[in-house]
Amino acid sequence: MKTYTHILFDLDHTLWDFEKNSEETLYTLYEQFGLASFGKFDSNSFYKKYKFVNTRLWDMYNKGRIKQAELRESRFVKTLTGLGLEPHEVPQGISEAYLDLCPTKTAVFPFAFEVLDYLQPKYGLHILTNGFKDAQHVKITSSNLHGYFKEIVTSDCCGYKKPDRRMFEYLLDRISVKPENCLMVGDNYECDIEGARDSGIDQVFFNPEKIKKRRSLKPTYEIHCLSQLKEML
């Protein structure tokens, strides 16, 4: 294995458990906004529909097909109208309530702190995320991840989104490190793995659900639990 000096982490779905935190938030909003009163769907259907809509909107955002504002403004409208509500029935303020509450949730993936404690004395650790600056910094602080990372680069602050190599180069310039001395850890094959590869950076594909997908090229490494990083590094 190469000698790495810096490790770049994605945040959502890699360290911060987006699915668990989002699910908790959506169940709270279902009660808070009285969505049961419409009699059209239960809380579980609400969560599943939101997950479906949000995943597809994020894919469009990562590909540059929609802007941040459209993603934030449309996901609850698309979710709730898809469940049978009329547009005028979508509760005012539900999107803002989600944005206020979800980033304060604290669930991280198993072994996240153990692995970061192990890696921090040996490597420079950094965050590279397509998430929005305001929400990402709240997530990192609320979940006690803030003390581990020297640089936290969001797509907002650098003007580019993974897999655009310019986002990776932006971080490398900030830390004055060559790509061959870095390792990228992330769950999104297109954004994290292909983006890092195109930038000359080795990759660790974090695939906890062991999803099999046809790919033209394999990642440098693949793991299913963060604890495996301790065995590798």
From TrEMBL:
An example molecular function term from Gene Ontology annotations: 5'-nucleotidase activity
Domain of life: Bacteria
Pfam family, one: Hydrolase
InterPro entries: HAD-like_sf, HAD-SF_hydro_IA, HAD-SF_hydro_IA_YjjG/PynA, HAD_sf, PGP-like_dom2, Pyrimidine_5'-ntase_YjjG
Name the record gives this protein: Noncanonical pyrimidine nucleotidase, YjjG family
